[in-house]
Amino acid sequence: MVALLLCLALPVSAATQVQFTTNLGDFVIQLDEAKAPTTSENFLKYVKDGSYVGTIFHRVIPGFMAQGGGFDKDMKQRPSYAPIKNESANGLPNDRATVAMARTQDPHSATRQFYINYENNSFLNARGSQPGYAVFGKVVKGFSVIQKMAEIPTTRAMGMKDVPQQPIVIEAVKIIK
Fold first, then answer.
1. Which ranges carry the PPIase cyclophilin-type domain (predicted)?
2. 96, 117 contact by CB (below 8 A)
3. Tell me, what's the pLDDT at 8?
4. 166: helix, coil or strand?
5. How confident is the prediction for the chain on average, in pLDDT?
6. With contact defined as beta carbons under 8 Å apart, do 126 and 88 qualify?
7. What's the confidence (pLDDT) of residue 3?
């Protein structure tokens, strides 16, 4: 009985949660720092330095994903820290509402851009020795805001396609847990 009471009295380590405020509403991401420590740490650097504020979701493809964090509303790329090691073999799948790092063809090129999956996108997962896209968290509140993003018509801008015609601006970001 005493052992049970002691276990109940121990503090429970809560997962880090980050709240995003956009011009469409708020959503909360819960990080999986145990399975994606490098990616989570990298993401939190941008949260803590405030550089996600003022960036946009610059690529939104309904039924696929919404990508943001790298450009301002004038489509100017924001500076980034050094690329990180790809953690796509961490066992976290690119499922609906999960958050992963965007990258180039180079598997170890992720910096600041992230995306949120609208559906299960298993083709983005690592397979054997083939790297995928590293999932590091999940939207745990406000997924309806992410879904609203997909309702905005898109266009081409600055050589990119799938750019929302109405900018989806990240107005504030804070760690809430």
1. 22-175
2. yes
3. 53
4. coil
5. 94
6. yes
7. 46
Report how far residue 136's alpha carbon sits from residue 132's, in angstroms, rounded to the nearest whole number.
Answer: 13
Domain 17-176 sits in CATH at: 2.40.100.10
Q: What is the pLDDT of residues 18-31, one digit of tens each?
A: 999 999 999 999 99
Position of tokens 């429970």? Answer: 12
Report the distance separating Cα 134 and Cα 174, nearest Å.
22
Q: Side-chain half-sphere of 175: how many Cα atoms within 13 Å? A: 15
> For the chain, what's the residue count?
177
Whole-structure pTM value: 0.92
pLDDT tier at 141, thresholds 50, 70, 90: very high
Q: Is 50 helix (H, G, I), strand (E, B) or coil?
A: coil
Torsion sign (Cα): 162, 174, 31, 105:
positive
User: Taking phi first (over 0 means left), then psi (-120 to 50 degrees means alpha), and beta for anything else, what does residue 34 get?
Assistant: alpha
**Sign of the CA dihedral with 172 first, then 94, 104, and 87 last:** positive
Q: What are phi and psi of 12, to 5 degrees?
A: -95, 130
